[in-house]
Design brief:
Length: about 325
């Protein structure tokens, strides 16, 4: 139902304007969705998790701007970057640092301020707080303390990259950053290889080449992907192709923030006995091949999907067999 400001001026003089109080009530309810009225529409004793632009400073909601103006203070991962955002939108508010180095030390004092009635906004360098960023400790502590926590949604590199990749349709999986190394990383790659849904993940520029090589080795040279760089910024770039071609094209360390989209696993046919696969893997391991190399050779020899054989190879190395 439209608010009063959306109605023509002559509507007030009509005798059947009985719906006016209801419209006003709906409008006020919309303002109270943040928990009440403290300054404008923000509520005291509330922690706001506010999404900020991932690049273009115009990609922020009106609700987010209102909350950032009205809260008692703003906690930011990087105060210099956040101050530029606030100044671009004419916001002058108390801005304090809250990153991984200080969150534990400031946790008790921040909770005390919330309990005493303050409203506080938590923002990150870019995107949504708590998504591969610090601040989770504060949010969990606030929830445990009975503090109201309100999310203000906005721009995200995850769905932006998925849209631009051309690989998303009926769903996707987001995993943040891959583990740096070891068994956890191998198991994560195996999970991506076998997932029928596209996978979205973040990667640092200096690890991009190695990650693409590893993904191509585990999933085969024909699996498609997309590398999205500097999304919504002036030098935005999206490269699409097979994982092998993307790896070959990454000859130099790129600049900026990277989001990867990996095509989901396709339906397949073909089977071989577990014993046959294990025997072939054992022979490959005995020859000194790594799991990705063993999966490549065994899949080719037995006519199987590399993703399935790679997952089996990782499982056998995990069990020490």
């Amino acid at each position: 139902m439209p608010s009063n400001s959306d109605r023509p001026a002559e509507a007030e003089s009509e005798p059947e304007a009985e719906s006016e109080p209801e419209a006003e009530h709906e409008h006020e309810h919309g303002r109270e969705e943040d928990g009440g009225s403290k300054r404008g529409g923000t509520a005291g004793r509330t922690l706001y998790l506010v999404a900020t632009p991932i690049g273009n400073l115009e990609d922020i909601t009106l609700r987010a701007l209102r909350v950032l103006r009205e809260v008692d203070r703003i906690l930011a991962e990087d105060t210099r970057r956040s101050r530029a955002l606030l100044e671009a939108h004419g916001i002058s508010n108390r801005l304090e640092r809250l990153d991984d180095h200080v969150v534990a030390r400031k946790l008790e004092a921040t909770l005390a301020r919330l309990v005493s009635g303050e409203s506080i906004a938590l923002i990150t360098d870019a995107g949504t707080p708590l998504v591969s960023d610090p601040g989770g400790m504060l949010a969990r502590a606030a929830i445990d303390a009975g503090i109201q926590v309100v999310a203000i949604p906005g721009a995200t590199a995850v769905t932006t990259a998925l849209l631009l990749s051309g690989l998303g349709a009926d769903g996707f999986r987001f995993i943040g950053f891959l583990p740096r190394s070891g068994r956890e990383r191998a198991e994560a790659v195996a999970g991506i290889a076998r997932d029928p849904l596209p996978t979205v993940l973040f990667e640092s520029p200096h690890r991009l080449k190695d990650t693409l090589d590893e993904l191509a080795g585990a999933m085969g040279s024909n699996r498609r992907g997309a590398v999205a760089r500097e999304l919504t910024k002036l030098h935005e770039e999206v490269r699409r192709g097979t994982l092998a071609s993307l790896a070959d094209a990454t000859r130099e360390t790129p600049r900026g923030e990277i989001t990867l989209v990996i095509e989901g696993d396709a339906p397949h046919a073909g089977d071989a006995s577990t014993d046959a696969v294990d025997h072939a893997l054992d022979a490959a391991f005995a020859a000194g091949l790594r799991p990705a190399e063993a999966a490549r050779d065994v899949a080719r020899a037995l006519g199987l999907r590399r993703a399935d054989v790679y997952a089996r190879a990782v499982a056998r190395t995990r069990r020490g067999q």
